[in-house]
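Re-running the complex after MR caught last week's input typo. The corrected sequence lines follow. Everything else is unchanged.
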Amino acid sequence: MYGRRFGIFIAIYLVSVFLALPDNAYAMHIMEGFLPVQWCVFWFALTIPFLIVGLWSIQKTIKHNPSLKMMLGLAGAFAFVLSALKIPSVTGSCSHPTGVGLGAVLFGPWAMSVLGCIVLIFQAILLAHGGLSTLGANTFSMAVVGPFVAYAVYKACQKSGAPLGLSVFLAAALGDLLTYVTTSLQLALAFPAETGGVVASFVKFMGVFAFTQVPLAVSEGLLTVVVFNFLAAYNKRELQELSVLPGEVRA
Amino acid sequence: MSATAKNLASKNLFLLVIVVALILLPLMTQRDAEFAGADGQAEEVITEINPGYEPWFNSIWEPPSGEIESLFFSLQAAIGSGFVCYYLGYLRGRKKEQEE
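Corrected-run output:
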C-alpha cells in the first residue's frame, strides 16, 4: 500500500524537479552579517515571543508527565542529526534538512521553536553556519514557520482521515520546504531588486534556496516516518498521552 | 522476531532505501556538478541586487579548516544519532520486558 503511493509521488516529483531545474544553487541558512541590522532586530522581535511560549510549553509538558523528557530529547536529537547532514540535490548543490517536523508533530509547534533555536546556536557558534546576528531570522524560518506548518499539516491530514504515515510524511516534508521559502522571503524583503522589487528578488532567492530543498524535503519526510513508525510500534502509550494518536490512555 | 517487529522492519527498510536512492540520484545524474555546500550563491545574488552591501558582522569564530568544520558536523550528527538510537533501543527493550 505504501509502495504504489510513493511510486506515483516520486514519479510526479522527478518530472517536476527536472522541469524546474535552475542552473546552480546553494541552500542554507542566512549567513552571518548578511541581513541588514533593522531586519535582524525585526526577526528577533518576532521570534522571541515564540521562544517564551515554547519554554513555557516544554515546562508544562514535562511537569505534567516527566517520563516524556526522553521523547523530548529524541525530538531535539533528531533535529540535531538531520540539520548536520548536507545532502546533494538534483540542482547540483547541497543543502540540509531541518528535522523539526517530528518534534512538531509530537510536542506541538511551540516546543520546537526552542529546540530548533538551540540547534541553530550550536551551528552559528561552532560551525560559522548561519549566524548570531541572523539567529532571529533563521529561528523564525526553521523553528517557527517549519514546525507550525508541520503541525497544521499533520492536524489537517488527521482530520481528513489520511493514513498516519502519509500525514507524518507531508507534515515533515512541507515544514522543511516552507522553512526555505521563508528564508527566500526574508532575503527578498531585505534586498528588494531595483526593478521588480521584493517579488523579483523573491523569485531569485527561491531559485537559490527552495528548489534545492525539494528532494531533501522528501528525504526528511521519509526519515521522519521511519522514526514515527518506530514510536508508534513501541511507544504507543506516550503518543496517546500526547494526543498524537487517537485512543484512550490506559493507566 | 514478532509480527510487529517484522512488519516495522520491512516498512522502514523500504523507506530508507528510497532515501538512499534520493541521495544517490543527483550524484549520478549531475556528474559534473560541484555540489558545493557554501552559502556563496545567496551571497552572489545579494551582491547582484545590492552591489554595495557589506556584511556588518562577522562570525565570532570560524573553523580554521574544512577538516575542523567536518569534525564539528560529524560530531553534531554523532551526538544526535547516538541519542536517537539509545532511545529507540530503550523503547524496544522496555516493550519486550512489559510483554514478558
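None of the earlier attempt is carried over here. Helices of chain B lie at 3-29, 40-49, 66-99. Chain B touches chain A through 61 residues (CB under 8 Å).
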